[in-house]
Design a protein that fits this description.
With 349 residues, this protein is mainly alpha-helical. It has a single domain, classed as ABC transporter involved in vitamin B12 uptake, BtuC (Orthogonal Bundle), CATH 1.10.3470. The protein contains 14 helices and four strands. The strands form two sheets. A two-stranded antiparallel ribbon has the order 1-4. A two-stranded antiparallel ribbon has the order 2-3. A hairpin with a 2-residue loop joins strand 2 (167-169) and strand 3. Helix 2 crosses helix 11 (263-276) and helix 3 (82-97) packs parallel to helix 5 (131-150). The protein is globular and about 80 Å long.
Amino acid sequence: MAAVREVPPDNDVHDEVLAATQRRRAQKVQIAAFFLFVALVPLAVHNRYYLHILIVVGLNLILATGLNLLMGYAGQVSLGHAAFYGIGAYVSGILTATYGCNPWAALLAALAVTSLVAWLVGKPTLRLRGHYLAMATLGVGIIVVVVIRQTTGLTGGAAGLTEIPSMTLFGRELQSNMDMHYFYFVWAWVCLLTVLFANLVESRPGRALRALHDSELAAQTLGVDTAAFKVRALVISAAYASIAGTLYAHSSMRFLSPTPFGFHTSIALLVMVVLGGQGTLWGPALGAVTITAIQEALRPYADYDIVVYGLLLVVMMIVMPGGLSRALGALYGRLRERVARHRAGDVAR
């Protein structure tokens, strides 16, 4: 009887699995450290204006994380993502201010409506590719803003929607977007959604999205339903925007206007993702912090912010095409190598 020869394990597969496990562990540590730092920030920052800016950073981070899933992982470009932000804000605002609904029920209703709109938009538009898809999403963004401005009886039109009630938590009313309690409330959502995002991109659907991003044809060859995954990515991305919109509606001095949901916001979100680094966990955070700081610095020159965004995109594509996250990661890797070589030299001597 012939002896059965043992087949050696595939070292490449083993190394890949080990690297993925180590990456997930590192991400858990990074997320825990980051949000521990965020939890301690209000203890050092007592200025209500800076707390307000940090809340805005949190909202932008939720928006950029959702868009990062669509752009960085599914490889689909959206120039009208602020439309979903606006739908979430206005559905929640109208239900609570006009019809007296509970803010938490309004949040769920806004989430459902925004997801449904994203699905209806995604079914036809995600059949398009390249510039056609970008133009289609741009058109959707413009349509939503026009509808908000023209339906004055429901949304208040250009004058805005007023008397939106505050969110409540355990019987406590979170009254202002400059309140420390609302800061923790918003960043608790940021923490939850970041953890969900990290788990999603490391799961089987996340790997399918990365395959779709690298090559749609190759993903189809491997059996990935690319059309379905693109629509799902858009719906999840829109759900993130809806949650951010609801949080904004109930933290903006009980007032909504169409301005924050226009083309400028969509471009700012796109720049956040590209600047921070598409397809990375921490890219949206770096982009949200950077762009929010630039927006505040340019507030006296608000008409020129779109010019700054364009310049940032051009510079990033030339200098750091992988974004700040990958550039900082590469710098950290080089520093570790230099330290390792230095230690090896000391041991040799």
